[in-house]
Amino acid sequence: MPALPPDRRLPLLYAIILVDVIVGAAVGPVLPEFVRGLRQPQLWLSVGTGVFLGVQLFSAPLLGRLSDGYGRRPIFIISAVGTLLANALLLPVRAGLYFVNRVSDGLTNGMYATVRSAITDISPPERLFRNLGIEGAIISLGFVLGPMASGLMLTFLQVPPAQQATYVVRLAVALAALNIGLSLWLPETHAGRGGVRGVELHAELARSVNPLTLWARLREKNAQNPGVRRIVLTQVALTLSTGYYFYFVPFASLGPLHLDARQISYFFMFFGALSVGLNYVFYSYFADRINQRRAIVWLAALGAPVLAGYGLMGTSKVALYVLVTLDCLTLSLIQGLLEGRLARHTTEADRGEIFGLNQAFQSLASFGTALVFGGLSVLDLRLPWAWFALCLAAVAGLAATDRDIKSPH
Question: What string of DSSP letters covers 57-94?
Fold first, then answer.
C-alpha cells in the first residue's frame, strides 16, 4: 500500500483512537452490573480496573518496542483484534468473565504508546503539540460518544434493565470489529523498521515486569536526554490523580448520587462534550504560545480543590455539573501538555521505547491508585477524592521544581 502524505494519515489515526475509546466508554456505565451480586462491589470494580491497568506495565513497553522494530500498523491491528475478543468475553454477563476481560483487554490496550509514537512520526515540530493535543480532544470525544451511543440505544429500544448490559456489550463488539477495518486501512508511519529478535523480546518482557529495571532504563534515557525522567514522574503523579476517571462509575452508581446506567451515560456525554471543545480550542490556539511548564503548575494547583469537591458534593447533581465544568477548565488540559513535552525528547529510533516506558510507569501508577482508591472506598466512598486531590497537588509541585530543560532534538 503506498504511503499517504502525513496530513492524510492523521485522520485515520484519530479515527482508530476515537473508536477504541468509544468501545471502552460505552461499556463503562454497565460494568457495575457484572459485580453487583458480590460483597463490596465497589472494591471488585476497583480490583478489575487495577488488573486492566496493571497488565499494561509489561504490555506497553513490549508493544512500543515491537512498533519500533516492525512498524506501528501491525500493533494497531493486533490491538483491534484483541479488543474485539476481550469484549466478546463479556457475553454472558458474569463476574468471572468481567475479570477475564480486564486481563485480556489490558494486554492490548498498551497500544497508546504506539498511538503517540505514530502521531509524533508524522508531525512536524511546529504542529506536534497541536496534534497530540487533538489526540486528547479525540479521547474526550470518545467519552462523549460511547455513553451517548449506549444511552440512546437503551432509550430508543426501551431495553429492560436486566438486559441493558448485554445490549451494550453487543454494541461494543460491533464497534471493535469496525476498528479492525480501520487499522487494516492505515498506512505505516514508521520508516526505520529493522525487526526485533526473539531474544530481544524476551529481554524486553523480563525488564518490563521489574519496576527497578524500568527505573534503571528511565535513568539511562534521562542521561542521554536530561528532562525525560522529570516529565515521566510528573505524568505518574497525574495518572495517580486521574484514577478518578475509573472510580467515577462506582462512586456515581453506588455512592450518594445513586445514578443509573442512563444517567451515568448522560453525565459522561456532558463531561466529554465540554472537554473536547475546550481541548480543541486550547491546543489549537494557546498551547504553543504559552509556557507549558507554568501552565501545568497552575492547572494542577487549581484542579486539586476540584477533585476534593467531588467528595463533598453529597447528593447535589447541580454541584456535580459545576465541578465537572471546572474540571474541564483545569486538570483535563494537562495530559496533552505533558505528552507534547515528552515527544520533544524522543527520536525516530527510540520513540516507541520511550513512550512505552512512559505508559508502563503510568500503568504501574494506575494499578497502584486503583488499589488505594479501592481500599479507601471500603472505608468511605468519599475518601478516594482526598487521595486524588493530593496526587494532583504533587503534579503542581513536580512541575514547579522542574528546570524545564529543552530537548536538544
Answer: HHHHHHHHHHHHHH-HHHHHHHHHHHHHHHHHTT-S--
